[in-house]
Design goal:
Length: 208
């Protein structure tokens, strides 16, 4: 039996970062972001070659809305302040097996600051605490080191490689498959919380 999505439509990530639902009014900004980052994204994102104008971004936004309304997943804009800097969300949700997968992309000039790692952590919290799912998967191109670094950093288990998993233009690439279970995330989130508190201790002592 399918469940009703009960996820907040906006998620505050702290430090000016947030995730929120995409709106029709975002189409032009989203297309401009893709166009500006076309060379950066095209190597790993098949949708880039199919996004040729604002109308294509609008079609994506409306498809994402239908996906959400039909209980099949969710796509969110990643914002710094009010500026869209990427997209992250869930692909199809299998309510029977209680599993889903996460996808994401980020503007080139926002790389390396832990931004997408924070977004993925929030999505994992929603998947396991909000939807009570058992399994979340991330797939990334075998040679896409930046994308693979996120599940590796968060303690996902690498389950193997899917050969010839995706066609991007004229290339066919392999995918590394990473998995996090609800039980593993509970432990990992606790460890991440301890590490964060430890990193804040010197600053607190200095202030006092």
């Amino acid at each position: 039996m399918r469940k009703t999505l009960r996820v907040a439509f906006a998620i505050d990530l702290g430090e000016g970062l947030s995730l929120r639902a995409l709106d029709d009014a975002d189409a032009e900004e989203l297309f401009t972001l893709i166009e500006t980052n076309r060379a950066h994204l095209a190597a790993w994102m098949p949708f880039v070659g199919q996004t040729r104008g604002v109308a294509d971004s609008l079609a994506f936004i409306r498809a994402a809305r239908r996906q959400y309304e039909d209980n099949r997943g969710m796509q969110l804009a990643l914002l710094q302040g009010k500026q869209i800097i990427g997209v992250a969300g869930f692909h199809a949700i299998d309510w029977t097996r209680k599993s889903t997968s996460i996808g994401y992309w980020l503007a080139a000039d926002r790389q390396g600051a832990g931004t997408m790692t924070a977004a993925v952590c929030a999505l994992l919290d929603h998947a396991f605490d909000g939807w009570l799912l058992n399994r979340v998967e991330i797939r990334a191109g075998v040679l896409n080191s930046r994308s693979r670094a996120i599940p590796q950093r968060l303690g996902f288990r690498e389950e193997g490689v899917l050969r010839s998993a995706e066609r991007i233009g004229t290339r066919v690439i392999d995918h590394a498959v990473y998995v996090m279970t609800a039980r593993e995330w509970k432990r990992t989130a606790r460890e991440l919380g301890r590490a964060l508190r430890a990193s804040e201790q010197p600053a607190r002592r200095q202030v006092s």
